[in-house]
Amino acid sequence: QVQLAESGGGLVQPGGSLRLSCAASGIIYRLYTMGWYRQAPGKQRELVARITSAGSTNYADSVKGRFTISREYAKNTVYLQMNTLKPEDTAVYYCNADGTSYRRGDYWGQGTQVTVSS
């Protein structure tokens, strides 16, 4: 059974930092591109950042220079370090495991709430 367990969300003031974690189980982790997406109220889900099995990354323009995605193979975990947070970063953040390049599945976590407010 595939599980993506997210943690690290919460309430933070503008300018603050948070680190999200997503621990994957039930998949061959090295075959998956891992990503973070977010969905704000009334908006569509959007890509925040992705990291391939080779370590290549891409980011949404709105988070470049503030967010960093990384992955740890020993723990089957992907991280999203979020710095200089803004109120517009408020959303539910979802972890994604995309194995379609290797004819594997595409999986989502349950989401973790990030609220940036003073």
Structure description:
The strands form two sheets. Strands 2, 4, 5, 6, 9, 10 and 11 form a seven-stranded mixed beta sheet that branches. A four-stranded antiparallel beta sheet has the order 1-3-8-7, with no helix packed on it. The protein is built from no helices and eleven strands. It is mainly beta and 118 residues long. It is globular and about 45 Å long.
Largest sheet: 7 strands, mixed
Strand residue percentage: over 45%
Shape: globular
Mean pLDDT: 96
**Count of DSSP-assigned helices:** 0
According to DSSP, the number of beta strands is 11
Task: Give a brief outline of the structure.
The chain has 118 residues and is mainly beta.
What are the defining features of this structure?
118 residues, seven-stranded mixed beta sheet, four-stranded antiparallel beta sheet, single chain, mainly beta
